[in-house]
Amino acid sequence: FAKISNGIHKCCFNCEICPNGTYLNITEDPYECINCKDTEWSAAGSTSCNLRELEFVPFTDIGAILIMVGAWALVVLTVAMSVLFAINYNTPVVRSAGGPMCFLIFGCLCLSNVSVFFYFGKPTASSCVMRLFPFIMFYTVCLACFVVRSFQIVFIFKIAAKFPKLHSV
């Protein structure tokens, strides 16, 4: 507890606990909490700071293994759907689903799922970049394709029904 002066007399004081990230050195200054360095931490009411320890999820953790198996399953499913769409490319079903845009959607979904594998193991500068960039970039493209496809469907069915001459232009 730091001694906080109370009134005009030096002998009167209130005690306040030092918050997280600070400590009290009684021999140096019993009246003020000292901030820990950026590489250190302390609990409330501490008299010293502790070094921060880097913790990460290893590849061998059961939760990491389950997440990676799920990501691989999604990648395999996405690739299988891409192959199925490629085999049946000229059919009306694939054309109505979006045609070439489907391959862009499948590719972006596959690449955004691959970014999951960079969240495990000891972090490095490159793995931190590979965690976020592929997911943000490819998932955004995938969502943009869904928005475009939704707009196309609305345009074709709703607007064409109300304005048939506009659709034929």
TrEMBL record:
One of its GO terms (molecular function) is G protein-coupled receptor activity. GO terms for cellular component: plasma membrane. Keywords: Cell membrane, G-protein coupled receptor, Glycoprotein, Membrane, Receptor, Signal, Transducer, Transmembrane, Transmembrane helix. The chain crosses the membrane at residues 62-89, 101-120, 132-157. This is Taste receptor family 1, type 2. The keyword Protein biosynthesis does not apply. Its main location: membrane. Pfam families: 7tm_3 (PF00003). It is found in: Cell membrane. Residues 63-158 form the G-protein coupled receptors family 3 profile domain. PROSITE patterns: G_PROTEIN_RECEP_F3_2, G_PROTEIN_RECEP_F3_4. It is a multi-pass membrane protein. The keyword Glycoprotein applies.
